[in-house]
Design goal:
The complex is a heterodimer of chains A (345) and B (455).
Chain A lengths: L9 E6 L9 E6 L5 E6 L3 E6 L8 E4 L5 E6 L3 E6 L3 E6 L5 E6 L4 E6 L5 E6 L3 E6 L5 E6 L13 E6 L5 E6 L3 E6 L5 E6 L16 E6 L5 E7 L12 E7 L4 E8 L5 E6 L6 E7 L2 E8 L4 E7 L6 E4 L5 E7 L9 E7 L4
Antiparallel strand pairs in A: 1-28, 2-3, 3-4, 4-5, 6-7, 7-8, 8-9, 10-11, 11-12, 12-13, 14-15, 15-16, 16-17, 18-19, 19-20, 20-21, 22-23, 23-24, 24-25, 26-27, 27-28
Chain B lengths: L5 H5 L2 H5 L5 H10 L1 H7 L4 H4 L1 H10 L2 E6 L24 E3 L6 E3 L3 H10 E8 L24 H9 L9 E4 L21 E3 L2 E3 L9 E3 L15 H19 L6 H18 L11 H7 L3 H15 L3 E5 L9 H25 L6 E6 L3 E6 L5 E4 L1 E8 L7 E2 L1 E2 L6 E3 L2 E2 H11 L7 E4 L4 E4 L14
Parallel strand pairs in B: 1-9, 1-10, 4-14, 4-17, 5-6, 5-9
Antiparallel strand pairs in B: 2-3, 4-13, 7-8, 10-13, 11-12, 15-16, 18-19
Classes of the chains: A mainly beta (345), B alpha/beta (455).
Chain lengths: 345, 455
Amino acid sequence: MADAPNELKPTKQVQVQKDKAALDLLSVARVPGTDQVFTGGNTGKIYHVDLAASEPVPVHWDAHISHVSALVVTPKHLISSGSDHQLIWWDRGTHKEVRKVEQPKWIRGLALAPDGNTLATVCDDMVCRLYETETGKPIRELAGHPDRTPFLLASKLYACRFSRDGKHLATSDQSGHALVWEVSSGKKLADIHAPFFYTHDTNGHTYGGIRSVDFSPDGRLLALAGNLAGDTSNIGGSKSMIQIYDWNKGEQTHDFRVGGNFFYERVRFHHEGKWLLGAGGAGSEQKLVFFDLEKKAMLRETKSPILVFDLAMSETSDMLYAVGPLADQRHQGRGSIVQWKLANL
Amino acid sequence: MSAETRTDFMNRPSFQRGFDGPLQDRRAFLGGSAKAFAAGLGGLSLLKSPLMGDVLERKQKRVLVIFLNGGASQFETWDPKPGRPTGGPFISIPTSVPGYRISELMPRMAMRLHKHTAVIRSLDTKNGDHISTLEGGKPTTGVLRYPGLGAMIAHELAAPESQLPHSVVFSNYIGQSYYESAGFLGSRWDPIDIKPGTLEAVPPFTIPQSVLRLAPEGLTLPGGLTDSNHLERGELRALLNREFVAGRGRDSALASLNSSYSRVRGLMSNAKLFDLEREPQRIRDLYGPTPFGKQALVARRLIEAGVPYVRVNRGWWDTHGQNFEAHNEMVPELDHVMSVLLDDLQERGLLEQTLVVTFSEMGRTPHININQGRDHFPRTSATLSGCGIKPGTIYGKTDEDGNDIVEGRVSLQQFFATIFKAVGIDHTKENVNPSDGRPVPLTDYGTDPVKEVLV
């Protein structure tokens, strides 16, 4: 476990729109085998950026009414989801709308099966929906998350992720439940309850939740990421937390907590399991944190110029693409893409 | 109702059942028919006076405040700006008022706006911090301590000999609440503040847990003390007080003390009002299981019994981070509880006499900070429902990004004057500050209510 990146300076940083106040980038998807990314913002726009260009010029179009919450890339299409309840298929080349499907509430996340044939969505109505990726035909709905938090308020379904072999799908919610589903049958295989992800602060804000999930390459472990109790109203004293479970046994195997004003928005395993990456940010802290699973210890952490709201990794885990707002709040049009080279240099 | 004759009201089922009938019928009669009742009692010439009729009618009015402390976002409630850089994630939905849209997080209120509610989208509290807007934004100056909204209302609406509390405040279940003192009106008009208890932190939580309380502490007698014992003690105390006072002239401190004992006894005799077990399960289910829902149901019971002023706090809306997650959780609950409360008051015939006010000490910024939060902002939205309100009125307007008010700016003093006017209180009335004899009006001199939202 010595292959953690030993030097982490961004190799490229692009601010997509410099003349717009309060623009945040919330989602990103990478075109496989390239340095091209699509990224979605809080003004409903999607930006297409080729980071291989010496001076990348983002191309954008209006896609949603408000937040573009998630993006995935297929051979033909870009698929976007929004807080406006819309799931939209776009022609990747022309950026023209191909198909639109409406769901009842804010669609929080998307996941594409490794074979590309199945698309999973998670929505604030607490239902995960599976679709045929290219046709948009519904396959089935996966319902089983509690729709109320322990404080009896409406919960949210934050994240979904397929295992590398495509057989399993994990979904996670606000109150600390992560469910594992058999994709072929829709059967619920496991309900991991990790209650420390559900929190309230001293003034009664009751949020938190498992914001991101990922399977280990062998599919045995499930990493859950979010934060532990703190004053989340001011993002002060909020500890970031990653817990890992052997989901088949229902046993927790790892518990990583990092202090400060910080919580994780994303967690990803190295494609061969050499390390685990947690990324996020809040307040004055934003960083990438790498963990050694064998030693159950942090390998290293590095400061990020942005709060990471979403990320994409290359197939061989050597390149990282992250989006979010520049941490310096004085910037106008702060939404930025940052690229890092993760391999040993 | 004013045209109803004595014969008409005698034919009503509530009259034929007598006063042991369902509470809602009795209250509807008492509230809505005050003038008619006065006019129908031929032998009581005093009650035939229009002035006395107005006083009687005013005394039946009540105010229920849902206070969103911490500063709820106007963008995620009554003044959404979807598709604008300031708009946040939520879309807007149409309401029953043509052309007016609110946040998708409030579908139940969207269907009811035309029935009971006026929205003010242009309230300028001139306050960008967590000071108590409930005291009119007025600081203590010298010997002058301004009374809070609840004390002023209770002072005007409470029946002098009533054994009911004048004013009841349910503190925020968790976190901060704002106290509103009676100021120079005197402690007699201070609210009964029902605060939650606390327990030590229990994992997974790392901070103390709140324990919901729906009734004031000490409503029941200590063990070994029967009700008759307590009454006898009270009689003995009254006797001793009378002898003590005799020959000492008028002593306001003694009078206040006696009044306090009387109020405690009155409160104990009204303990059932705070007991939700007396409410049918169907009604409890309607309000829902959350602390806010339960507090709102007790508030309705108090209003129904005639308590002039009740405030329920729901917080904490101070969302410098994760604004959308917090509002996604709390606004649907507000929508649910507010709509159930209005329906319930209407079905019981109480809404004609009850003004329901929903507001915050401030709003939240159009600018969304990097923590997906909104910060403090002195301009906000508020609603008035029920008594004296022209339903379906949408008053005031902000610009396309919600940065400023472009039509119908309403000051906090105007907002208070509108509340007073809606329940028949003369907002220009002066009370005297006993410390210096200064006359102090309920609202600042020259303040006008927002007549457009009033019937």
